């Protein structure tokens, strides 16, 4: 188990230079990047939107519950929801969900191409398949996922507002006052760092799992699952490391 | 011309190819035949560089293919076309997009030139008017023909075909064989076909190599098949009782 982790890690690192080698044809790569941006970005918008709105709503309600009967001013809830969403919830939860949706999809797509000899066919044509099939996905994810996370953060705060203000938990003015208190632009920077790192992890790990799949449909299923599991674990580890590096 | 010298290939402790020497000649349809597990597919994959030999050399004309770096291999591959057993057409692309993919990737032709070339290749394989269909909307035989069209779109010097007739009815098989043979002749290219279809052997086998347990069991042309006294060849070619009777009748 441990030796497999190290062997996979070594293989992954040695594979990256091939992935990021010079494209044969920039136009074709750009076309592929655009397609991937659409698949990853537009294709994941609804799920990210739904999750974000509920995360915001639940965060607001539960903090209101926990602070009930204390001397902490109620507008603090707006402040807590905002910072929690920006620093942690929007990037981490969104990317964990995207790892499940996008990651498994990428692993299955590339693994299917491997099994149907599409990758061999491209190699024989002279295409650097590591680059053509993987780099556009990674670049598309690096562009689109931070934008999705940004949307998730905004939607989450709106979700918190919708869940708490109309239900009378606190007033609109209190919520807005909280949102506007002690804003640190640095937290937005942390959000973007996290979303970029997570985007790289979830796409590259999934591509790796799909690209090197061997065997039949059972192995393809396993690779797809492995892509999600490994992606999620690595995202959580990276989350911890980034938190440590950027906030301590 | 492609020449192999003392090619060996092992997977773990199992040696699949045991020192092969053979020349695949230019302008001819070169056939690799043999029973399942004889090493045909391994040899074809070695020839196109999808596998690397344990030892030995592969010469593409005067270039030692086995000693080239990744970049040089990719350049040689611009001159290579391959028809896969399952056609390996990209499902998400139309027939036209499949055929023009190598042109889009490697040439600076105009849209009109690409379109004309696609139509010309489709005409060669007798498939005009299917440009906008997806592979899933075409039959197995049509997919093979699209595969051939894609393989020849960049005017390759070397054409490889892995079991071109597998899964096809005899009539369609003859059409596919005829297409490959005529493309080989008209373009004077080196064609290597991996097959166990006996019709192909007798129809288009100009230079045949029979693999048996990783070694060359017999080599010759279709004309020499009936004259040969090799038991190995005869056991393979006339494997069924019907063909045995036919052979006795003909010979």
Automatic annotation (TrEMBL), chain B:
It comes from the Bacteria. The keyword Protease does not apply. Residues 2-238 form the ABC transporter domain. InterPro entries: AAA+_ATPase, ABC_transporter-like_ATP-bd, P-loop_NTPase. Pfam families: ABC_tran (PF00005). GO terms for molecular function: ATP binding; ATP hydrolysis activity. Keywords: ATP-binding, Nucleotide-binding, Transport. This is Phosphonate ABC transporter ATP-binding protein.
């Amino acid at each position: 188990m441990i030796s497999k982790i190290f062997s996979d890690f070594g293989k992954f690192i040695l594979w990256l230079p091939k992935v990021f080698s010079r494209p044969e044809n920039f136009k074709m790569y750009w076309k592929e990047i655009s397609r991937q941006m659409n698949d990853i970005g537009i294709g994941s918008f609804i799920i990210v939107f739904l999750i974000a709105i509920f995360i915001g709503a639940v965060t607001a309600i539960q903090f209101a519950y926990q602070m009930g009967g204390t001397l902490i001013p109620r507008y603090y809830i707006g402040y807590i929801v905002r910072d929690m969403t920006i620093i942690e919830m929007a990037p981490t939860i969104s990317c964990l969900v995207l790892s499940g949706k996008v990651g498994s999809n990428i692993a299955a797509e590339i693994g299917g191409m491997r099994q149907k000899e599409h990758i061999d066919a491209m190699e024989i044509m002279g295409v650097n398949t590591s680059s053509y099939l993987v780099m556009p996905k990674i670049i598309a994810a690096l562009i689109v996922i931070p934008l999705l996370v940004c949307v998730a953060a905004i939607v989450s705060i709106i979700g918190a507002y919708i869940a708490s203000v109309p239900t009378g938990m606190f007033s609109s003015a209190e919520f807005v006052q909280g949102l506007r208190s002690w804003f640190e632009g640095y937290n937005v920077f942390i959000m973007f760092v996290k979303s970029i790192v997570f985007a790289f992890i979830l796409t590259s790990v999934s591509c790796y799992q799909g690209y090197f799949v061997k065997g039949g449909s059972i192995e393809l299923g396993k690779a797809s699952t492995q892509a999600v599991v490994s992606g999620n674990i690595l995202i959580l580890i990276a989350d911890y490391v980034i938190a440590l590096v950027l906030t301590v | 011309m492609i020449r192999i010298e003392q090619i060996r290939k092992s997977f773990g402790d199992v040696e699949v190819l045991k020192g092969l020497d053979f020349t695949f000649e230019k302008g001819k349809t070169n056939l690799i035949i043999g029973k399942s597990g004889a090493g045909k597919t391994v040899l074809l994959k070695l020839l196109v560089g999808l596998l690397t030999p344990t030892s030995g050399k592969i010469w593409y004309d005067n270039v030692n293919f086995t000693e080239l770096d990744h970049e040089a291999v990719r350049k040689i591959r611009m001159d290579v076309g391959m028809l896969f057993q399952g056609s390996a057409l990209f499902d998400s692309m139309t027939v036209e997009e499949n055929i023009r993919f190598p042109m889009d990737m490697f040439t600076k032709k105009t849209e009109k030139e690409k379109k004309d070339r696609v139509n010309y290749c489709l005409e060669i394989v007798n498939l005009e008017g299917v440009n906008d269909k997806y592979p899933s909307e075409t039959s197995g035989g049509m997919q093979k023909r699209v595969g051939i069209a894609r393989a020849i779109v960049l005017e390759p010097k070397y054409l490889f075909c892995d079991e071109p007739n597998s899964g096809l009815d005899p009539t369609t098989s003859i059409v596919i064989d005829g297409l490959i043979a005529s493309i080989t002749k008209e373009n004077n290219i080196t064609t290597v076909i991996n097959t166990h279809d006996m019709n192909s052997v007798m129809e288009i086998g100009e230079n045949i190599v029979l693999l048996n347990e990783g070694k060359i069991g017999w080599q010759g042309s279709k004309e020499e098949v009936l004259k040969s006294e090799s038991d190995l060849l005869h056991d393979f070619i006339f494997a069924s009782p019907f063909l045995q009777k036919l052979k006795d009748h003909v010979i």
